[in-house]
Amino acid sequence: MAQRARRGARAVVSSALGSVALALVAPPTLADNAALTIPFTVTRPAGEGPFPAVVILHDCSGLGPGSSGAPWRWSSELMRLGYVTIWPDSFSTRGFPRGVCTEPGRESVRPRFRAADAYAALAHLRTLPFVDSRRVAVMGGSHGGSSTLASIVASPANAERANPGFAAAIALYPSCSFGYGEFVVERGREPGSPISGYRGTFRPLAPMLILTGELDDWTPAEPCRHLVRSAEAAGLPATIKIYPGAHHSFDSVAPVRHVAERININAPGGRGATTGGNREAWADARVMVRDFLARHLAPQPR
């Protein structure tokens, strides 16, 4: 796959931050009849390494002009802490260069398909001499957070994608309102239908942290609480922190605003969601992420 990825590279751009934009080849998914070239960006700290690394999965706004900027913010934070990062662009070559926050017909970029992109990025990182291949985490917010859960849940597809897989996972304000692996959410088919129950167990393949907001009306916190409880009850490594007074996309300085056009399965009629930064939650999330990665991506004896 690495050789095909290098042949598929369509641009190489260097900056003072040490970033490189290339392309990788994701394996076929149920939505794709053939392998798909996925653009990505790599950032690295100064020095020879080998460094631990984090795959960053973007949110529904993608990586184009309308991006929320979250991958840039987290990559800058992580590179300062000594991590290589890679951000696959799951949307552009699938026909959604402007993102999918308000776009219907998003089947080809559902989280279970984006998990293949995460593992393609993991495979590429393992070809880089400055990356410690055993110390790679996956992380994302919103749609990327849901894709992180899809990447870390025990499933036949993930078992085939890499062994070993990711060493840790962080999902920021993911959607836990639908099923992952054995974990099932029971609700009606109509948008805004209330959740009637939960069953089964979410089985993470590695230690997992969820950070979400109490006031999130796009991807509510309560289903994530149930998801984590199901894992904890089975003795599996899952943790959640819910920030009081925080909305969706709390990890920014953006003002709180409601956008009626956003697709939202938790809203009556299926549209409308609120986002906005929260200074206290954003500051604490940086500490939580720093400490979680330091614990789970610590150097391993050879």
What's the helix and strand layout?
Elements: H1 2-7, E1 19-26, E2 36-43, E3 51-57, H2 70-80, E4 84-88, H3 111-125, E5 131-141, H4 143-152, H5 156-161, E6 168-172, E7 184-187, E8 195-199, E9 208-213, H6 221-233, E10 238-243, E11 257-263, E12 271-275, H7 279-296
Parallel strand pairs: 3-4, 3-5, 5-6, 6-9, 9-10
Antiparallel strand pairs: 1-2, 2-4, 7-8, 11-12
Account of the protein in words:
The longest helix has 18 residues, at 279-296. By secondary structure, the protein is an alpha/beta fold. The protein is globular and about 50 Å long. α3 packs across α4. 26% of the residues lie in helices and 25% in strands. It is built from seven helices and twelve strands. It has a single domain (2-296), classed as Alpha/Beta hydrolase fold, catalytic domain (Rossmann fold).
Q: Key features?
A:
302 residues, Rossmann fold, eight-stranded mixed sheet, two-stranded antiparallel ribbon
Tell me the count of domains.
Answer: 1
Q: Tell me, rounded to a whole number, the average pLDDT.
A: 87
- The unreliable regions are 1-23, 25-34
Kindly report how far apart the N and C termini lie. 26 Å
Q: Count the beta strands.
A: 12
Write a brief caption for the model:
The strands form three sheets. This protein has an eight-stranded mixed beta sheet, sandwiched between helices. The chain has a two-stranded antiparallel ribbon with strand order 7-8. 26% of the residues lie in helices and 25% in strands.
